[in-house]
Design a protein that fits this description.
EC 2.2.1.7; isoprene biosynthesis; thiamine biosynthesis
Amino acid sequence: MATATFQQPFSVNAHLNDHSRLLTPKVEFSTVNFPANGEFSRVNFCPSFASTSSTSKEYAGHVRSLPNVDGSIKEKVPTPMLDMIENPMHLKNLTPKELKQLADDIRSELSFIMSETQKSFKASLSVVELTVAIHHVFHAPVDKILWDIEDQTYPHKLLTGRRPLVHKLREGNGLGSSTCRFESDFDPFGAGHGCCSISSGLGMAVARDLKGKRDRIVAVISNETTMAGQVYEAMSNAGYLDSNMVVILNDSHHSLHPKLEQTPKTSVNALSSILSKLQSSKIFRRFREIAKVLTKRIGGGMHEWAAKVDEYARGMMGPPGSTLFEELGLYYIGPVDGHKIEDLLCVLHEVASLDSMGPVLVHVITKEEPGVEYNTIKTSNEDHTGSCNSELLPCNPRPRTYSDRFVEALITESEKDEEIVVVHAGMGMEPPFQLLKNKLQDKFFDVGMAEQHAVTFSAGLSCGGLKPFCIIPSAFLQRAYDQVVHDVDRQKIPVRFAITSAGLVGSDGPTHSGAFDITFMSCLPNMIVMAPSDDTELARMVATAACIDDRPVCFRYPRGAMAKPNPDSCIIDPIEIGKGKILTEGKDIALLGYGSMVQNCLRAHSLLSKLGVDVTVADARFCKPLDINLVRMLCKNHTFLITVEEGSIGGFGAHVAQFISLDGQLDAGIKWRPITLPDNYIEGALPKDQLALAGLSGNHIAATALSLLGRTRDALLIMC
């Protein structure tokens, strides 16, 4: 009999009910504990029918374990308090102690899902107590609760009846990742890329006032989104309009700059807690309003003098920068400990009871990982039956991605050219870019969620004689399009845009999907637009972009693991501008792929070859300038032409259609079909499922080709 050894203590818990068909109904709970170092041959929980003469039964089943903080293994922790919550109304009668238990249950639940899905919930873990307090004090969905970023909304989802949907993340279909007004009455506005909650909340507050309603508006922002200018535009307008709303700043001590990380953090102690409660109290607010009225009546500059004293005193008591919010017109309260339920309830109850007091900002201090440090070990989603071995413990290495290859190529170019600098913008940073930051040091600039600034800053660096590579995810580049047009393209400033997370992005869904960059970048008169089909092409396009110094250029690449490594990966010579290439030659039909879709065209070629269809596959490389000689040759030598791209309508296929129509190729008899992303938003799912839903898989491409050839039956069979 085979044996298995293990080095960590762990236990197996079996929860059984009266309807169990495997064990006696009398057994309700069973625990098996194992020593720290031991050896066992088998752990079985299902009846073994191998021998009917055996007097004892063996049981075999599924064992799913999680890595603990110290490396040990444990099962999912029970969450009895969370199990009783179906909607926020169930929180109203809970005591602070029970609310704290509920917060612990939510944290356990998110930690369990995080360990199984490899999806980070750090932002959500920082707002667990805050979310519980908000739903205890305010009355959603009558009161509107808005979030700036989706990453903070998972405790909110668990408390608003969407616990099963959040668990769908474990299956990879991403149903729990979307926060939009169509999904739930508890989401009055979609949580996009950040900085939208105050603006949308202010609009709802003004609409409420005009309609004579009395519901309350709560907007939760993070210090990560305060990098974006729209936050301050909204605050300034909120201060001017003076509509009642509550803005909660979740300050998780996150900073993009190491020098700022070394500065003293905003502390929360007994004194600051007392002052926050005092600032939010009715008595203090009424006293302050009475003082304003009296000083205005006294006249002689008394009101202005008193306002300066008030501002100076509150600035002395508050943390650095607190007076900024006062200058914008928001009444500042804080700092408040975001992990103390009692303090949060006290302040939020006072804030919720205030009427006709204008916009209020509550400064909440949180930690992204309160009380626990999560390691970066990736876990397996598979269930293992039978014997266990230490080799089955989660230790899967991170797969090699396109970003890894991009960083390698860019480091190579930077070693040859000292003028290369990098500007990074967007939410968070991929691990390869952290390595690039460490390598380039002072030549790497991370500006966070300030994409507009990143583009114009890059233009300024270029005007100063440097060669900037501006790295921005496709979905985030949308916010900086005005700067791309006027500050870069119109002036023909050579900025090199590396557009990451292009196309479909799996479980992150339409929020982070990069569907539109081909269309909105290729319509600019001076922009060179290209996309690599594999890792080698990506490295060559980095070298190509480094050589271009008379106009802007952009290239896109997808999120996730690379396709099969190219055997010619050592070739990193620049590519001739506007020059595509033919990969396989045939005579029946031509597939012209753009970017990552070239790989799916090759898969379609493999399927069609088995059916006797002779296919040409070409890699366009460039959307602009288009390789018109390649397109002419494909039209001349084939009756059918199919263009394939992982982008919206109006992109690469539209440029091909424009050329072949003006060039007379359509009149000459070529039959052209475009395959693009559909004209709708594709929700989060596994990448392969998203491609199938979009009609961009190798099977879909092959089926389109067979339909053009009149082989409808084969087209249907290949989709089965």
